[in-house]
Design goal:
Order of helices and strands of chain A: EEEEEEEEEEE
Helix content of chain B: under 10%
Largest sheet of chain B: 7 strands, mixed
Shape of chain B: globular
Oligomer: heterodimer
Radius of gyration of chain A: 13 Å
Distance between the termini of chain A: 41 Å
Number of helices of chain A: 0
Helix content of chain A: under 10%
Structural class of chain B: mainly beta
Number of strands of chain A: 11
Order of helices and strands of chain B: EEEEEEEEEEE
Strand content of chain A: over 45%
């Protein structure tokens, strides 16, 4: 059974720092991995989708990498801003069409 | 930019009552989903729907739950007789393809008293 874990559970950093959020999964047979942002009490905003054949994806200050064989993905946030404060979720899709979510990393960026 | 819309944003109901949560997926998407998130817990898969039928459902999605696409635009989740443990945020999502990017709505918060 696929398990998705995110470390750290919470992170508090000053504005301007570069950050790395980690996601690990126990079964490497995935089709893709998706990173989301969730603001308190709100929905899930898709940030990046990495197909299983890809190694990384970039969008603005965000860069996500995928190492299927080791069961890991990282989300790199450059030059963090207070507006980046949110919970970041990773999720994987396997041989069915359902997403399996991690526990999330709660990020706070203070001015 | 196209988005998934959900109504209501918050519903309070008494235990045992029926609830219908509504979603309008992105118009050219073919795959539709319901997920839920109990406060402080992971987002959990409930059901996927394609070509007017359920393609997969989780153990949570028992006989009290049903989904329907009554017309070309709406996608609904019905809970026949709500329980206290059904209190959660329910998210609708849609995707253009089976392993494509999923787009989520803002969620419907259900509170069962």
């Amino acid at each position: 059974k696929q398990e998705v874990t995110q470390i750290p559970a919470a992170l508090s950093v000053p504005e301007g720092e570069n950050l790395v959020l980690n996601c690990s999964f126990t079964d490497s047979a995935i089709y893709n991995l998706q990173w989301f942002r969730q603001d308190p009490g709100k929905g899930l905003t898709s940030l990046l989708l990495i197909q299983s054949s890809q190694r990384e994806q970039t969008s603005g200050r965000l860069n996500a990498s995928l190492d299927k064989s080791s069961g890991r993905s990282t989300l790199y946030i450059a030059a963090s801003q207070p507006g980046d404060s949110a919970t970041y979720l990773c999720a994987v899709i396997q041989d069915t069409d359902k997403l399996i979510f991690g526990t999330g990393t709660r990020l706070q960026v203070f001015p | 930019e196209p988005e998934v819309t959900q109504t209501p944003s918050h519903q309070v109901t008494q235990m045992g009552q029926e609830v219908i949560l509504r979603c309008v997926p992105i118009s050219n998407h073919l795959y539709f989903y319901w997920y839920r998130q109990i406060l402080g817990q992971k987002v959990e898969f409930l059901v996927s729907f394609y070509n007017n039928e359920i393609s997969e459902k989780s153990e949570i999605f028992d006989d009290q739950f049903s989904v329907e696409r009554p017309d070309g635009s709406n996608f609904t989740l019905k809970i026949r007789s709500t329980k206290l443990e059904d209190s959660a945020m329910y998210f609708c999502a849609s995707a253009p393809g089976v392993t494509g990017e999923l787009f989520f709505g803002e969620g419907s918060r259900l509170t069962v008293l």
